[in-house]
Amino acid sequence: MEIYKRYQKKEPKKFSWTYRIRYYDENGKKKPISKSGFKTSKEARIAGGIIELKYNQSGISEKENITFHDYAQSWIDTYKKDHISEHSYYIYSLIPTEIKNCFHETKLKDITKADYQNMITAYGKNHVRESVSKMNSRIKAIVQEAVDERIVYTNFTHNISIASKVASKDAGLKYIDEIEAKKLKTLCLQSLDMNSIGNYEIVFGLLTGCRIGEVSGLTWNNVHFKNKTVSIVNGYDYNGNNGFKDTKTESSNRTIRISDELLSILKKLKKQQRELFLKQGYRDIDNLVFRNGNHQIISDNAVNKSLTTKLRDKVKSKNIITFHGLRHTHASILISHGVDIAYVSQRLGHKNVAITLNIYSHLLQKAKSQQEEKAMEILQSELN
């Protein structure tokens, strides 16, 4: 091991101490490892000694000098790319960019806990606490793998302070009330045609609680007019144009009952679609329900934009929701009218009732209060 002074180019009189170690890789090729920035030769020698000990005990990884953001990208490509949904992979793909914006070309092994805390603190200035926590959890898994590979010795993401200067959205903002839902449905029903397929989707989402991917992936084969049901068996990659994909979870595959009103709306759409496609000489081999007059499945962004415009300009709602908010609206209406939570859970395609209870706990608390009042009225009148 070599220990020497390294002078700064811009300020020749200033220097720091550096260690350099030469080792042989798996192919017998001699390679150097060095690190500078130590205030004293003793500090450099101790740090270099740790690396030498590591080399003697378990060898040195080829990734020893990998940057933080390159390691994160490599981990995501290896463990996530072909194992999670397109949307989830997109979320993970943002992580290396966040890391590079903060650490640039800093090597993973050179990141300290204080450095990482500064990154998370900066991230919290523009994101809600939940997002900050999720970001930390994902990066924690990445760094843990680096610990397992012996690139770093400890996981510097442990016991990090999670904070945010952005207020979390109130649960009430995620859905609209029943009066607003009626106004929205009426507004969409006024313009149901192939050029405004989003109106069909909004009504369908409102009356079924389906996710946007489930709506986009619905085929006419899975609309059962006689039984008054629809079967949810596919999602759809409307962003990557890769066609069908699996539903979010295994429990998302379900068959749900639909109202006579929605059956009539779907019959109207099928008639419009059949007549237009016949005129155009077009045949949809996928037999998709919500393919528009241009033979496209519109994106979630397009639907959300239309939904926002309607809620803001026509319904005059203070609660501007996304398509997923229609799912919460559907559930809230059923819960508020006393529909059994187990049925609501199955209808939404949740894995178990506990998930539903957790998501809609605030609504259930309100329903509980109403049920308590009803129970007291019964006990008061029937036992007197």
TrEMBL record:
UniProt keyword list: DNA integration, DNA recombination, DNA-binding
A Pfam entry, by short name: Phage_integrase
Domain Core-binding (CB) intervals: 66-147
DNA-binding is among the record's keywords: yes
PROSITE patterns noted in UniProt: CB, TYR_RECOMBINASE
Span of domain Tyr recombinase: 171-376
InterPro entries in UniProt: AP2-like_int_N, CB, DNA_brk_join_enz, Integrase-like_cat_sf, Integrase_catalytic, Integrase_recombinase_N, Integrase_SAM-like_N, Phage_Integrase
UniProt-listed Gene3D superfamilies: 1.10.150.130, Intergrase catalytic core (1.10.443.10)
Family: Belongs to the 'phage' integrase family.
PANTHER family, per the entry: PROPHAGE INTEGRASE (PTHR30629), PROPHAGE INTEGRASE INTA-RELATED (PTHR30629:SF6)
Protein name (database record): Tyrosine-type recombinase/integrase
Naturally occurring in which organism (per UniProt): Companilactobacillus keshanensis
